[in-house]
Design goal:
The chain has one domain (about 5-65). About 50% of the residues lie in helices and about 0% in strands. It is built from three helices and no strands. The chain is globular.
């Protein structure tokens, strides 16, 4: 079982933000928020495979960033 390494996660999130046109967003803050929510990226987390929880977690991150979107 492989996990995202922190630097790989950073690169992935920055690439997503750039590709999706989210250029005004504080990308560093986005990375910090996602790092704090381990069910989104850590396969060892008991909620990693909880497909009902993940959209809610992304919505919470979106609220903190004042953006809307879909998981």
């Amino acid at each position: 079982m492989s996990l995202f390494r922190a630097d790989s996660l950073d690169r992935y999130l920055l690439q997503w933000a750039w590709d999706s046109g989210v250029v005004a967003m504080d990308k560093t803050y986005l990375i910090e928020l996602v790092r704090d929510v381990t069910p989104l990226w850590d396969q060892r987390d008991k909620n990693y495979h909880n497909s009902n929880l993940k959209p809610k977690l992304w919505d919470e991150i979106g609220e903190k960033l004042n953006v809307t979107g879909k998981y």
